[in-house]
Structure formats: C-alpha cells, structure tokens
Design brief:
- By secondary structure, this protein is of the alpha/beta class.
- The chain has two domains: 2-114, NAD(P)-binding Rossmann-like Domain (Rossmann fold, 3-Layer(aba) Sandwich); 115-273 and 312-330, Dihydrodipicolinate Reductase, domain 2 (2-Layer Sandwich).
- The protein is built from nine helices and 13 strands.
- It has helices at 2-12, 28-37, 47-51, 68-77, 92-105, 119-129, 167-183, 288-303, 312-330; strands at residues 22-24, 42-44, 58-61, 81-84, 109-111, 136-144, 188-195, 205-211, 217-223, 233-240, 243-248, 251-256, 268-273.
- Strands 7-8-9-6-10-11-12-13 form an eight-stranded mixed sheet, with helices on one face. A three-stranded parallel sheet has the order 3-4-5, sandwiched between helices. Strands 1-2 form a two-stranded parallel sheet.
- Strand 4 (81-84), helix 5 (92-105) and strand 5 form a beta-alpha-beta unit.
- Helix 4 packs parallel to helix 5, helix 5 runs antiparallel to helix 9 (312-330) and helix 7 crosses helix 9.
Length: 332
C-alpha cells in the first residue's frame, strides 16, 4: 500500500458506488494501524492472496515499479480491472504484453499519469485541438524539483533504475505521457543526455530532443536536483504559427497574433489562473487531478467502458520513449 496507497484509499473510498474490501501490504505495522480504524476491511500481507480472494472487482496497485508487471499480470489473468501507479513497468516489452492482455480480456486498465486530469493542461489540449495557435512548431517542457538536493547516498527505490529510480522515471515519465496526450505518439528521438549531480547510480538531470507528428519538436529538461524549487514544478511553452501558450501547475497564458472570435480570446496576452477553470472534482487531496483520475477509473469499471485516463497502451508508448532516451544516451 505505502504512502501513495494511503492517498488513493482516501480518495476512492469517497466514491458513492465503490466499496473498499481489502488491502495488502508487507508491513504488519501498516496493516495493524489501518485495521484499528477499518475493522471491516480484509488485510493481506501478500498481494497474490488479495487478488485470489474473490473480494475485488478492481484493484489499485502501488507496489514498487519492479513488481508492477507480475501484479498486473495476475490481476488480468483473474479478470480484475487495474489502476497501476506510474511508471507502469520498467520494460517496454512487458508494458506491451500487459496492454495486449487487458485489451483482449476487455478489462479496464489505467496508469496513474495524473496530469491528464489537470484542469490547466486539459484547457491547453482544448486550445491545441481547436488550432488556436496554428501549427505547433516547437515546445519547451521543463520539470523541476528539489527531490535529490544533497550528496547523501540515495536509498530505497530512488537509488535503482529498475525500481523506477532516477529523474527520468520519477518525473520525466509524467511529462512524456502528458506530451503523448497533447501531441500524440513521439516519432523520433534526436538526442538525449543524462547527468549525475548527487546520485551515484541514477541520473539527476535528463535532457532530450524529440519529434512528433507534423514535424513538431519538443525540448525536454527534467531536473530533480534544482534546489530553488520548494515544490515540484512543470512548465510547458508551445510556440505556434499564430501564437504561444505557456502553462504550468498554476494557470496558463495565451499570446495571439490576431484575435480569435470563435474562442473569444483577444489579440495579445490573456492570463487564466488555475482557479478560474471549471473542475469536476468534489474535493482536494494532493490536487483535484488525483480525485478526477480515480473517479474516472471507478466509473469506467462500474459502467463497463474504456477509461478516459491513460491506458496501458498509452503508457507503453511512454515506456518506449524512456527506453529510447536511455539507449540514445548510452550509445554515444
């Protein structure tokens, strides 16, 4: 279950049509603490026992990334729909295999790339789909945080790439998926650089030049050792033939060379703060996008339809891009 499991539990447990029936965690301390407050929820020390218990129709998987494949595969074999935390798997082949399995079985499948449910970035998508700034020529995508900001030896999953460690998996995967959502599947990686600042076995900075359909290029810069950021920040800058869109977690700015009457935006700059955009989330836990993504998953399961979130297939495209970036850097 872990920390993310606690967050997801607190959100999904509020859904009026969802009943939480079981929890698995290897920590008896965690299970005993939860059991004190949730005596009617069945506790398991092994996720396999939970999946085979017959108690669940859908499961939220928050294990370390190296265990995602086995857990998702067993759930799929048992006919259980899955919401899996990112970065899904650390193998392109495994991610494609899982996407094939869940599509063939007709099971709901979603990966926790939460930016797809952010109101700011969905407004960006609306504008891009409407052609507001014309042909998108280039994008700058920056993801910055102070996650690793000292020379102390990294411990736990962050110290191993196979566990999803390193800034590319931890932060970059979110940005890569968001660009997949906004621009489609990437076509080509021109180059990539991975730099160590404080970590010994994983990268602290990732830079990559990627091309999308129609010749649109994107410069990615991922840095989890930027000590000037108290909280993680994502910045996108879209340069189009008719204008620009600048967006971050707090709002967006649009510059138009000419007014757009159909959308109702004037020539020049227009600023829209995050809190001025409609948001369907009933409450805020770590950000409304976390609520929106889990409700989308639950509603898809309840209604027997495909999720509106990031599917295993879409997540496999992000996984493919990550491995291309790794191999491009290693082959220099």
């Amino acid at each position: 279950m872990g920390r993310m499991g606690l967050t997801h539990y607190s959100i999904i447990n509020t859904h009026p049509a969802v009943e939480m029936t079981a929890i698995a965690d290897t920590s008896s301390t965690m299970l005993n603490m939860i059991k004190k407050y949730l005596p009617n929820v069945k506790m398991f020390e092994d996720y396999k026992d939970l999946l085979r218990s017959g108690l669940v129709d859908a499961v939220i998987i928050c294990t370390p990334s190296i265990l995602h494949y086995e857990a998702c595969k067993l759930a799929g074999e048992l006919g259980i729909s899955v919401f899996c935390e990112k970065p899904f798997t650390t193998s392109t082949q495994q991610s494609v295999e899982l996407a094939d399995m869940f599509e063939q079985k007709g099971l709901v499948n979603q990966v926790g790339y939460v930016y797809r449910f952010d109101v700011v970035f969905n407004k960006v998508k609306e504008y891009l789909d409407a052609g507001l700034i014309g042909k998108v020529v280039h994008v700058n995508a920056d993801s910055l945080s102070a996650t690793v900001s000292s020379a102390k030896p990294a411990k736990g999953w962050r110290a191993k790439r196979e566990n999803g460690g390193g800034c590319t998996y931890e932060m970059g995967s979110h940005v890569f998926d968001l660009m997949d959502y906004l621009l489609g599947k990437p076509q080509k990686v021109y180059g990539s650089l991975l730099n160590n600042v404080y970590s010994e076995s994983v990268e602290d900075i990732c830079s990559a030049e990627v091309q999308y359909a129609g010749g649109t290029t994107c410069s990615f810069h991922i840095n989890w050792s930027d000590y000037t950021y108290r909280k993680p920040m994502l910045k996108l800058d879209f340069h189009g033939t008719k204008g620009k869109i600048q967006a971050d977690l707090y709002g967006l700015k649009v510059y138009l060379r000419e007014a757009n009457q159909s959308i109702g935006l004037p020539e020049g700059w227009t600023t829209t703060p995050m809190n001025m955009l409609p948001d369907p989330a009933p409450f805020y836990v770590r950000g409304t996008s976390f609520t929106n993504q889990l409700y989308a998953f639950a509603d898809a399961v309840l209604e027997g339809r495909k999720t509106t979130g990031c599917t295993f297939r879409a997540a496999s495209e992000t996984q493919e891009l990550i491995h291309t970036i790794f191999s491009n850097n290693e082959n220099k």
